[in-house]
Amino acid sequence: MIESFNLLGRNMYDLDDYTAEELNAILDATVVMKEINQRDYKKLPTLKGKTVCTLFIENSTRTKISFELAASRLSADLISFQASTSSLQKGESLQDTVETLNAMGVDLYIIRHSSPGSPHLVHKYSNKPVVNGGDGRHAHPTQALLDMYSIKEKLGTLNGLKVVIVGDITNSRVVRSNLIGMKKLGAEVTICGPRTLVPGYMDEIYGCKVEYDLKTALKDADVVMGLRMQLERQTEGLFPSLEEYSKHYNICRETMKWAKKDALVMHPGPMNRGIEILPEIAESPQSVIIEQVANGVAVRMALLFLILGGKM
Fold first, then answer.
1. Rounded distance between C-alpha atoms, residue 299 and residue 292, angstroms
2. Is the N end or the C end of the chain the one with fewer CB atoms within 10 Å?
3. Roughly how many angstroms between the first and final C-alpha of the chain, as a whole number?
4. Which residues span the domain enclosing 120?
5. Cα–Cα distances in Å, from 101 out to 34, 81, 84, 120, 241?
């Protein structure tokens, strides 16, 4: 039996609105959903009659497909919204778009947008539960949930673990959500990257450690997570070249020697192979990168189930 912990009708803008108990409830429900995903017949009638809309204004592949597969496996009706073929291209506002979709009976929105705060606007215009599928550089809570689940599944807990997140900290919405969630579940988190790609005061705001030297950061790490160098968001020339970045911050066999021998390797994807991480590590037994993708479907199933009040 899955406990709801009063998640019925809740929004998920980021993980700061959720207690450690509620985050663990979502991760516990994910265990059930993952077991269902491993069956020959993966369909449940639990959200039959509910309508879910993936409102993706910003491009996405894995997040959009993962949410849509999650909704489908719970038997929800799905509206898959593509901005490139919508009236937004004709000048329609986000408000008009949401109000039009609302008139069609949407019960929950999943929004991906380049502007921080867009999930709040969707809720304002719809008065329906909204899940943030990524808003600009701000947050990506379901990615953080699947990252935390992947760690807990392998290591049993996050409490007391040293997690090191390496890369483009400034432009990453993933790192912010992970810092909030992992700290709530007791992990010690260190962020590492070039000084120009690490915002100031991260230690004071999120309670994490900040390192600029990879060897120092990786010492005794239980988990090492690489982040994609987001060139599409880098307009200020904050780093000379990808080659220069890779020289100092690449996760490879040599640099992983600085972490614990059995440290997990993670990456939220998509990867710039050979830049942030070498295939020798990404495809090694230490890596849970592919499992993160599989766990994403289960986490999102659990979240939709809990917010929409599904019954097992």
1. 10
2. N
3. 7
4. 15-139+295-307
5. 30, 10, 16, 16, 43
Poorest-confidence range of 96-105, 126-135, 227-236, 286-295?
227-236
Which DSSP helix (H) or strand (E) runs through 54?
strand 51-56
Domain presence at residue 2: no
Residue 233 has what pLDDT? 47
Report the percent of the chain where pLDDT is more than 70: 91
Please state, in angstroms and rounded to a whole number, the distance separating the CA atoms of residues 67 and 145. Answer: 13
- 147, part of any domain: yes
Rg (CA), the chain: 19
pLDDT at 236: 56
Closest C-alpha to 98, from 118, 114, 84, 78 = 118
Asked whether residue 147 falls in the same domain as residue 287, the answer is yes
Which CATH number characterizes residue 105's domain? 3.40.50.1370
**What would the pLDDT profile of 161-197 be if each residue is shown by its tens digit?**
999 999 999 989 999 999 999 999 999 999 999 998 9
Query: Between the CA of residue 126 and those of 48, 94, 162, what are the distances in Å?
Result: 21, 11, 40
Residues 95 and 198 in one domain: no
Helix (H) or strand (E) holding 264: strand 264-266
Instruction: For residues 159 and 207, state if they share a domain.
Output: yes
